[in-house]
Design brief:
alpha+beta; Fructose-1,6-Bisphosphatase, Chain A, domain 1; D-Maltodextrin-Binding Protein, domain 2; 2 domains; five-stranded mixed beta sheet; 15 strands; about 30% helix; disordered N terminus; binds 2,5-anhydro-1,6-di-O-phosphono-D-mannitol; binds magnesium ion
């Protein structure tokens, strides 16, 4: 058990004994953000409120995701439930919740969401007043919901570069090196919010009984190496040669490097990435014959997780260069990605270089 969550802090009834919260040992996300405000480079109060708005939307989405199994009782998506309310698909619902939460304050002037083709402007009396822009994937891996598999939200926060008026495309087309903050929420067996502002990575577990994210994983570090590789091996025949050779390397027997590695692929990037954060490993979504620039999106899937990976001592690459250095050209741009334990990503890059695969970025 983590030292910050003492036995007493895990409230529950065991053998008829009620264990009470040790409030001194528990730090909530809000307390933590306020305490760390000094680390923020700009507009401390605004970024604090922005992160707090995101955590509120996360709690609401978490509640709905956990009700998903009740769909037969509550009604199918696009129908009307027994309370006479329209039932929405969860990714649409999550998108609305995050937009509402990020619109509530005056911190953000525009959003990019995986669910919306265009930039969403947030105006106050015709002016885009906020100093930040946010790119997000409201419910990544949403096809997994029906089978009770973890899903997630990913967010990337940039400082706008345009000086006034409506937010512009260039506000979003900043390389990941310019990120101010990034994070993800995993909706799983327990739900967690993990974020960084460029001074380490911290993880908070949602305690549903008090409705708070509580610091459970301070200063997270990805192990330098691991023994898990994570890739959709079903597409093997469509992979570039360097990736095929790297997979063969993962499967070979070698005591010195702890091979063969285990293959784990959930099909929810956040969940695969989170597991590798904890245990070490590599996640790869390369170019394929049918996705020649990869599948995952630079702005709101790859960049935020790359920022977190690097802050946790890991590495994220498109095969030949840092994900964070890829210059975005459009808001829904896709990139190939190799992310996770530093040594594993470096080895996979070497295979790509050896077989002269030049990834498209
Ligand atoms: P989504 O944003 O439409 O949910 O797609 C992204 C998801 C990732 O979470 C996951 O890693 C990947 O798609 C799985 O794709 P595939 O089924 O091609 O392996
Ligand atoms: Mg997605």
């Amino acid at each position: 058990m983590h030292p910050n969550l003492s036995a007493a802090s895990l409230r529950g009834e065991k053998a008829g004994i009620i264990v009470l919260y040790n409030m001194e040992a528990v730090k909530t996300l809000t307390e933590f953000i306020i305490e760390r405000q000094a680390d923020f480079k700009y507009a401390k109060g605004e970024l604090t409120r922005l992160l707090s708005d995101i955590s509120i939307a996360a709690k609401i989405v978490n509640r709905e995701v956990n009700k998903a199994g009740l769909v037969d009782i509550l009604g199918e998506a696009d129908s009307v439930n027994i309370q006479g309310e329209a039932v929405q698909k969860l990714d649409v619902y999550a998108n609305k919740q995050f937009i509402a939460a990020l619109t509530a304050g005056n911190e953000v002037c525009a959003l990019v969401s995986e669910e919306d083709e265009d930039i969403i402007h947030i105006s106050n009396n015709g002016n885009d007043v906020g100093k930040y822009v946010v790119a997000f994937d409201p419910l990544d891996g949403s096809s997994n919901i029906d089978s009770n598999v973890s899903t997630g939200t990913i967010f990337a926060i940039y400082r706008r570069v345009s000086l006034s008026g409506p937010a512009e495309l260039d506000d979003f087309l900043q390389p990941g090196t310019e990120l101010v903050a990034a994070g993800y929420i995993i909706y799983g067996s327990s739900s967690m919010l993990v974020y960084t502002t460029g001074r380490g990575v911290n993880g908070f577990t949602l305690d549903p009984s008090i409705g708070e994210f509580c610091l459970s994983h301070p200063d997270m570090k990805i192990p330098k190496s691991g023994k898990i590789y994570s890739i959709n091996q079903g597409y093997f025949v469509h992979f570039p040669k360097g990736i095929k050779q790297y997979i063969k390397y993962c499967q070979e027997e070698d005591e010195a490097t702890n091979r063969p590695y285990s293959l784990r692929y959930i099909g929810s990037m956040v969940a695969d990435f989170h597991r590798n954060m904890i245990k070490g490993g590599i996640f790869i979504y390369p170019t394929t014959a049918f996705s020649p620039t990869g599948k995952l999106r630079l702005l709101y899937e790859c960049n935020p997780l790359a920022f977190i990976a690097e802050e946790a001592g890991g590495k994220a690459s498109n095969g030949s260069k840092r994900i964070l250095e890829v210059q975005p050209e459009c808001i829904h741009q896709r990139v190939p990605i190799l992310i996770g334990s530093e040594d594993m990503v470096t080895t996979a890059e070497e295979f790509i270089a050896q077989y002269s695969e030049v990834p498209t970025s």
